[in-house]
Amino acid sequence: MRSAHSLKVRLLAHVEACRPDTVFYAGAIGLSGAILTRPDAGFSVLFPAWFVPTLAWIASLYGGDYFDRELDGLTKPHRPIPSGRIQPGTARNAMVFLIGAGALFAVLVNPLTVLLSIPAAVFGIAYARWLKGKGLWGNASRGLPSALTVLYGSMTAQPLPVPQLVVLSLMFWVHDSGSNLLGALCDRDGDRRGGYLTYPVQRGDEATVRGLAGFYAGWVALALAAPAVLGDRVDPAAYYAPLSVAIALGWVSLRGVLRAPRPIARAIGVRAHEIVVAERIVLGTFLIAAAGRPGLALAVGAPSLLLTVLARRLMRRRYEPAR
């Protein structure tokens, strides 16, 4: 009985480490890149477009837990590694295995994807190991893998990515740099205690909010301008209608921190980030509909959003409590 209980504890710890409230986003971006490149793409293209970014995302989560284990021991002792439910070596090995498995799978689909997988892995590890405490450089490095995911998805459908997708790649880069900065705002006090010189620690709340507003304005401008570059790859009506939902959710999140008393309470930052987590699912899937596959967009987006919200309710207070 004790062994079964121990196994259950370890399995739940790994589920917790994989953050089921965030895990659907990267794969949706890969699918978008593939469908914008080949609207009639079938399973042999769509599966690797979704699968490899998902593995990479989970690898980054294990890596973050491994490299942040000492900080988490000070500020978040309930997390899987500092609580002893996952050993540090296990998290490190999971990160290495998932990176290797994803890279191998990607190369088998298209050998040229190594041009993307190497910098994505390098920047993902560099963020977790060194760049997190380097101000906005760290936030920008964390957004880069999402930018590369768009291009990787395109490369599952043809040897080289569609050049027009660069505007969307930049959009996701700016967006995810901003969402990472918001996460850093949530962790400001703990990072200060641990000696991590993140942007909120270095520059304070007011400068951080200005940075968040800049990132928001940047990704919205790129998103609104993208159809002019994408041309007939997207249907304008199917593009702008769901995009408006993502823009509105992003604004609600930003407004929460804009109007918050200073210093911004962690609970307010966490609530703002929760909205962004839901908004990312919309942003990650609306391009699938805009490219002519609304049924697939709904089939991917609806359960992803539902599971994201449920996982957030069930696990987020345990993994990332507001206080």
Give the topology:
Blueprint: H1 2-17, H2 25-37, H3 43-67, H4 69-75, H5 88-109, H6 114-129, H7 136-155, H8 166-186, H9 188-194, H10 199-230, H11 236-258, H12 266-290, H13 294-319
Helix pairs in contact: 2-3, 2-7, 2-12, 3-5, 3-6, 3-7, 4-9, 5-6, 6-7, 7-8, 8-10, 8-12, 10-11, 11-12, 12-13
What does this 3D model show about the protein?
- The protein is mostly helical and 323 residues long.
- Helices cover 78% and strands 0% of the residues.
- It has helices spanning 2-17, 25-37, 43-67, 69-75, 88-109, 114-129, 136-155, 166-186, 188-194, 199-230, 236-258, 266-290, 294-319.
- Helix 3 runs parallel beside helix 6.
- The chain is globular.
- The mean pLDDT is 91.
Structural class: mainly alpha
Q: Give the number of DSSP strands.
A: 0
Helix content: over 70%
Averaged pLDDT:
91
CA-based shape: globular
> How much of the sequence is in beta strands?
under 5%
N- to C-terminal separation? 35 Å
- What profile does the largest beta sheet have? none
Supply the key terms.
323 residues; 13 helices; single chain; 78% helix; mainly alpha
Q: What's a quick, concise take on this entry?
A:
The chain is mainly alpha-helical. Helices cover 78% and strands 0% of the residues.
